Amino acid sequence: MREHGRHAAYRSAFTLPSRRDSVARARHWLRDELQRWRLHTDLCDVAVLVVSELFTNAVLHTASALISCEVRLLAEHVRLDVHDQGARDGAPSPRSPDSRAENGRGLLLVESLAEAWGVGSREGGVGRTVWAMLPLSHGSGV
């Protein structure tokens, strides 16, 4: 997916401590950024939910001191990347939690909302990146 034209300037990132209270800060930062880009409210809501799940997973399931998030507006998508500094064994994957479980559904939610998502090695070989692609059709676009 390539960036082009007026979308090339729509790229932003932040880094926060790997703490539970950082998840709310990540949600607020992303919503403010996407609203500044004038993206549709529905798309903002979906993006905030997805970044909340990915950021929460990084806080709970990695040995990171810091977690970074990058958001880019591409030709037909918003791409969200959450970078951690060090992962525990195994890549994140959706699971089927017990119906009474209070957690364990985050990646199922991401999978249902994103057009695509995945996990990759982080540049430099330390940590990993979990990413999601959201179609602009979640809203009316820019």
From TrEMBL:
A GO molecular-function term, please?
A: protein serine/threonine kinase activity
* InterPro entries for this protein: Anti-sigma-factor_SerPK, HATPase_C_sf, HATPase_dom
State a single Pfam family of this protein. HATPase_c_2
All copies of the Histidine kinase/HSP90-like ATPase domain together span: 17-131
- UniProt keyword terms in alphabetical order: Kinase, Serine/threonine-protein kinase, Transferase
Q: Would you tell me the protein name for this molecule?
A: Histidine kinase/HSP90-like ATPase domain-containing protein
